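pinging the channel bc i need a second pair of eyes. not urgent but kinda urgent?? the chain im working w is below, pasted from the shared doc
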Amino acid sequence: MLYVVCCMNMPDDYKKELESYLDAVIANDATDLHISSGRPPILRIDGSLKALEGAETLISEHVKELALCLLSKEQQEKFWADKDIDLSITYKNKARFRINIYQENNNVSAAFRFIPAKVRTIEELNLPPILHRFTQFSQGFFLVVGPSGHGKSTALAALIDEINHTRQDHIITIEDPIEYLFPQDKCIVDQREVGLDVQDFHRGLRAMFREDADVVMIGEMRDPETISTAITAAETGHLIFSTLHTNTAAQTIDRIIDSFPPHQQGQIRMQLASTLLGVLSRRLIPATKGGMINAIELLIGNSAVRNLIREGKTHQIDMVIETHLEEGMISLNRSLADLVERGLINYENAELYSTNPHELKMILQR
C-alpha cells in the first residue's frame, strides 16, 4: 500500500503536522516515531525513546483522526475489523516509512519505522565482506535473524540490491508491507505486497514457481507452509532469502524444525541440511561515541553444519562456529568482545546483548 504523504487526501493541517513529525525523524536520525494519546510524539534515537522537543501532548481523538487519514476507506474497514493494520508510505522521495496502526485501551496509536530511500551496501552497513559470497549462489537458503528492530530487513535489502546490480536474474520479493524499493537494473525486480498484490506469503511463494523466478526474498516466514515451500524452492534451483525473529543460528534451525509436527521433522531436517547456505544474526548496539553499531553471528552451511542438522545435534552448532573461524564464521560473543576491545561499545552493553555472558567474560579475560 504505497502512498506519497504530500499527495494524500487529508486536511492540510493534518498533512503539515504529520510532515513535521516525519521531518523530525529524518533530522534526528531516529529509527522510529510513536504517536499515541496522552503523550507527545516520541522518537527512538540510538535505541532510546525521547519526546519530540517542543511538541504538545496528543489527545486520543486527534491521534485517531491523524492515523486514519493515512488509510483508504477499504483499509479503515480492515483496521476496525482486525484492530491493527500494516502499511508503508513514500515521503517526498526522502525516505519510506513502514507503519503499524493499532488499537490499545480503546485508543488508536501508530508506530512508524524509518526506511532510508537509498539501499545501503554491505560495506556501508559494516557487515562482513564474506556476505558478498551469498549473493553469488544460484540456489540455496540464506536467513537473516535477530530481534525486532535490529536491521534484518536492511541487511537483506543490501544482499538483494547487490544481486540486482551484478546479475541478470528475475528477483521476486513477497513483503508485508513493501519496505525498500529496488530500482530496475540488471535484474527484473517484481515486488509483491501481501494483501495488495498477493493473498499471503504462502500463495505468493507457490506462484513464483510459475513466474520464472531466480531469486526470491520472503519478508518473513510466519508459518510451516511458507517455510516448507521456501525450502523446497531452494532445493529446486532457486536462491531464497528470508528472515526470522530468532536470536542465534542454532535457535533458528530448531525453530524451523520444531514448527512442523513430529512426523514431518525428519524430512524438513534433511531438506534444510541440503539447502542451508548460512544464517546471519544481527544486533544493533549503542556505540560509545553515539549511534548504533553492528554485532553479528555468522553461520556458514559447511559439511560439519549440514551433518549436525541431519543428525539433530544443533546444540553443537555453536562449537562448530568457534572451530571454523578461518572460514569466516563468527560467534556473537567474539563479535561483542572485539567491539569491547576496540572501545566501540562498553562491556555493560555487550553483556546485555550476549546470549552467554559467562563465555563473553572468559573471552575478554584471555
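so Confidence is low (pLDDT under 50) at residues 1-8. and The CA atoms of residues 336 and 350 lie 6 Å apart. — does that match what u expected or am i reading it wrong
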